[in-house]
Each structure stands twice: as C-alpha cells, then as structure tokens.
Design a protein that fits this description.
By secondary structure, the protein is of the alpha/beta class. The protein is built from 17 helices and 18 strands. It binds acetyl coenzyme *A (ACO).
Length: 525
C-alpha cells in the first residue's frame, strides 16, 4: 500500500513543542560594550557607547548590558559616567553592569565614582589560572573575594561573580570549581557567570557541565558566556539554555576578543524557533538596525553571509529557488526576513532564471511580455557572466537598453577596438568596424578615450564619403545606490539632417557604454 503524504499548501513555521507551561524567561545580558569592545582595533567613544546602550535597553530590550571593565582608562570612566547618568534618570541603573577585579577597594571606588551599581567581579574559575596568574591558593582567593563583596555590598552595590576560565576549570579542576560555588552560596551575590573564556567547549560538554551545576545548585542563578573560537558560540548557548542556564551573555555581530562571542541575533532566533519552553524579551525586529549601527560605530565589518544580519542572507540567487518560491514558497524556512525588519530579495546574475527576474520586476511594478522577458533574462545572464553585479535598480536601464537595441537593424558593427590611456600621452584607439559587410581599420588619438574613438570613426566615415551626426549632449548616469562596480548608462544626444535623437548604452565601463550608444546611432542614420 502506498503512503499518502499531505502537505499544507502554505507551509507554516513548525511548532516544535506543544508544552502548555508558561515559558521560562532567559535573561539576556549584552556585552558588546565590554567584551565586544575587546575586538582587536575597536574602541567606542563615550557618545557612541551611550547611543548603543540606549538602543539596547529601550528598543532591543535586552535585560542587562555590560558596558566596561573598571580601571581601564579615563575615557572609559567618562563613558560609564555618561551612561549611568542617563540610566539613573530613566530608571535603568540596575540593568547596567561593569566588570571589576579582585583588587581590594580599587574597583569598588571606581564603580562608585562612575555611578554604577552592578559589578561583575572577575575571579578565577580554574585552578590553572588561579595558581599561575594570581599565584594564590583557593582559600586566599575566596578570602579576597569575600572582602570585595562585603565592601561592595556595604556601599550599596550589587554583585555578580565571573568564574574566568570556568570551562577549563570544569574539565581539569572540577573539585576546585565546586568548592568555589559552595563558597559563593554563602555570599550575598545575585548571579554566577560561567564563561567559556577560551571558547573551547563543544555543545555536548556545555550541556553536561551546565546541567551538573543547575541540578546541584537549584537556588543559584547561572549565566553562560560563550566564545566563538570553534564557531560553536550559538550552538553552545542553545545547549546551555536547554540544560537550564538562566541567562546568556551575547554581543551584537558576535564582536569580542579573538573569534568573538556568541552573536545576539543568531542566539535569539534559534532560541525562539527551537526552545519553545523559554522566552526572551528581545525584539527581533530591532536586531538588524542595531547590527548596522554597531557596524558603523565600530568600523568592524560583518560578512554578507552572517546569519540574520548579513546583507545576503535573505537573498535567493538560484533561478530554481526563485521558481519554487513563486509557485509555493518552497524555499522559505522559519527565518522569515520580515521577523527581523528585512525583506527577501532575488539576486540578478548568471544564475538568474526567468522567475528570479519576474520577482524583481513585480517588486518594481513592471510587466513584460514573455518574449521581452526572455531577452532581458539573456542580457542579465551575459552581464553576470562578465562578473558584473546586477541589482534591481539596474533593471529599468537593462530593459530599456535591450528593447531599444531590438528595434534596430544592425548594418554597422563595431568589431574590435583597443583603447589606451597612459600618463603624459594622449589617449588613443585602434578601431575595426564593418559597414554593410565591408571592414575598415583606423587609428586615432583624442582628448579622452571616447574622443579618440570618435576621431577614428570620423576617419572611416570620411574615407567612405559618409557624414556623421554632431554630438550635442552626453549624459552619464548610474542607477540609484550604484556602487563602483555598478552599471553605467550613457545617453548621447545627436543632431543630424535637422533632427535630434538620443541613443543609449549600458555597461559597467563608461567608455564602453558610450561606444554602444554610438553604434546604435550609426545604425539609425
Ligand atoms: C573575561 C575577560 O574577558 S577578562 C577581561 C578583563 N578586562 C580587561 O583586561 C580590561 C583591559 N585591561 C586593562 O586595562 C588592564 O589590564 C588593567 C587596568 C585591568 C590592569 O592593568 P595593569 O595594572 O597594568 O596590569 P596588567 O594588565 O599588566 O596585568 C594584569 C594584572 O591583573 C592581575 N589579575 C588578573 N586577573 C585578575 C583578577 N581577576 N582580579 C585582580 N587582578 C587580576 C594579574 O595577575 C596582573 O597582576 P600583576 O601585575 O600583579 O601580575
């Protein structure tokens, strides 16, 4: 017997969990302004930090932000002060955090002067780091930490504690880590922050270690902090949440030291789609604009294929995909661009099929006959073959060029040319052209390459006893938003035998597009 498989005519996002319990809130702490700023070569100004902080708290709606390390510099101090002043006036002060050190009263005083209220105290989460960097015993370290926490608490500060290198601590000195957490249970702290400082963990280990701690210490709040050294940052935060972590540390665009941290946008999308029993307060629609803002402020460029926020991630290039989408959204997944304030695009180039081009035409409100659509498709494929980037904005120009050429019978054909442009020498051209099947070759110089081309052409026409029109206007345009590799349209106005007419050429090279326009003119006179 044959199985009958039914498909929804419009595929809906998959409901992966029918759990009816109200979802568990995962606290999102964004550390773009602290760990993200540890990206090599990145430094935010105080005003930039304030703008990003405001956006994160009020538009993106992360729960908390970490904005600096204490003691770093005078500039950092001013930035923290600026943010805490704004946060204090707007009721956000308890959402602002600063990384501090086990250094007696130094970091505490820095925090107090900067007006910050929540400290993320950096301690040693592995015996290896404790022994070799601080050169202390666990007992000495716990004593120092207890003193800082007592002082901070007495001054009205709230404490969270980072166990730096915790992941290696779990692998190689678990007894120390557990002893440390036992000690933390006796302290007036709010959260235990578990960093995979060197990004060494794989997802199954994250799950195992976090589960061990959330099971053994159900009264403690654990944040997980991933690094992306093996490109596992997002996978690791997903496992941490599944294992019961209460909070995550993320950064915009995955900025951060070395390979960076787990990226905010990817982490939020995967949690929303795959862990239905949890929720965050982050607004998906704001993720793209905050990514762009941080990219601009930091100068740290993200790749076009960066999930959720990269330029290309909602662009279909293959003709087959565009065709499937047109028929029944066959190549959509749950990551609908509209969720993130973005739109689906269909790229134009050599892999474009008709459906792809039709999609673009539809978006521009242009309709073409089947025959014209074929010609336009052919032209786009030719341009793509020459590695030319074709954008939606180029389409009207391409259409007008293709349909224009089509109505002209070709009696004159520019067969070959060599254009030269050298320093301190006049541009020159060697031109081979056929007129009604007869070939001519000429060489000429000019004030520019196109001028040289026209001079060679004049020589041929004079030799043939023919007259050329006068060029009365020459206009060059690039489609709106064009880049350096964009197409270039040249429109030339000619005057001949008392009438005026225009011809148009289109190419990524300006001189070539002018030559195309000229060839059209030669076939019209
Ligand atoms: C989780 C993370 O990403 S950790 C990132 C922490 N943030 C930073 O490092 C911010 C940038 N750092 C800085 O600006 C500086 O390193 C400062 C201001 C913190 C300290 O500067 P300096 O006094 O010049 O010390 P330097 O950077 O050379 O060395 C670090 C010192 O801190 C000590 N240290 C390391 N970890 C800690 C800690 N958790 N608490 C206290 N001291 C620590 C080191 O043992 C070393 O001390 P030593 O000089 O007595 O040997």
């Amino acid at each position: 017997m044959q199985a009958v498989i039914q498909l929804d005519s419009k595929q809906q996002p998959v409901q992966r969990n029918s759990n009816t319990k109200s979802p568990r809130h995962i606290e999102i702490m964004d550390t773009t302004l602290r760990d993200g700023e540890q990206t090599s070569g990145v430094s935010f100004s105080a005003s930039e930090k304030l703008t990003i902080a405001q956006l994160l708290l009020t538009e993106v709606k992360v729960d908390r932000i970490e904005i600096a390390s204490a003691r770093v510099s005078e500039g950092e101090f001013k930035a923290v002060k600026k943010i805490t002043e704004w946060a204090s006036a707007n009721g956000h002060l308890d959402r602002i955090e600063v990384l501090t050190f086990v250094d007696g009263d130094t970091s505490v005083n820095w925090m107090l002067q900067a007006g910050a209220k929540v400290m993320n105290l950096l301690t040693k989460g592995s015996l290896n780091h404790l022994t070799h960097q601080l050169k202390k015993t666990p007992e000495q370290h716990f004593e120092d930490i207890a003193k800082v926490i007592a002082l901070a608490t007495s001054k009205g500060l709230q404490c969270n504690v980072y166990l730096e290198d915790w992941s290696n601590g779990m692998r190689n000195s678990k007894e120390y880590v557990l002893q440390f957490i036992d000690f933390l249970q006796t302290q007036p702290i709010k959260r235990v922050l578990l960093p995979d400082t060197l990004g060494v963990l794989i997802p199954s280990e994250v799950y195992q270690y976090i589960l061990e701690l959330t099971s053994a210490y159900p009264n403690l709040h654990f944040d997980f902090h991933a690094h992306n050294d093996y490109d596992l940052g997002t996978a690791n935060v997903l496992e941490a949440v599944k294992a019961g972590a209460h909070g995550l540390h993320l950064t915009i665009n995955g900025m951060g030291e070395r390979a960076g941290n787990a990226p905010l946008a990817s982490a939020i999308a995967v949690l929303n789609d795959y862990v239905k029993e949890v929720k965050t307060s982050v607004v998906e629609k704001s993720l793209y604009s905050v990514s762009k803002l941080v990219e601009t402020f930091s100068g740290f460029r993200i790749s076009a294929n960066k999930p959720i926020v990269g330029e290309n991630v909602f662009t279909q290039t293959a003709g087959i995909h565009a065709d499937g989408d047109k028929k029944n959204k066959l190549y959509f997944n749950d990551l609908m661009p509209e969720r993130f304030g973005r739109e689906r695009k269909y790229a134009l180039g050599k892999t474009s099929g008709k459906a792809n081009i039709e999609n673009n035409l539809q978006q521009l409100g242009i309709q073409l006959s089947g025959e014209d659509l074929k010609k336009v498709t052919q032209r786009i494929i030719e341009l793509g073959d020459r590695k030319e980037a074709v954008t939606q904005a180029d389409l009207p120009y391409i259409i007008s060029d293709v349909l224009d050429s089509d109505t002209i019978r070709e009696k004159v054909h520019v067969e070959n040319y060599v254009l030269t442009h050298s320093k301190n020498l006049r541009p020159s051209v060697t031109l081979k052209i056929s007129i009604e099947g007869e070939s001519f070759e000429e060489h000429a110089q000019g004030d520019g390459q196109y001028d040289a081309f026209m001079n060679a052409l004049k020589k041929v026409y004079t030799q043939k006893g023919l007259e050329l029109p006068t060029l009365t206007d020459y206009e060059v345009r690039i489609p709106p938003g064009g880049k350096s590799d964009a197409l270039c349209e040249t429109i030339i106005t000619w005057s001949f035998s008392g009438r005026e007419f225009k011809t148009r050429g289109l190419d990524s090279d300006q001189t070539v597009s002018a030559i195309q326009a000229t060839q059209k003119m030669l076939n019209l006179i």
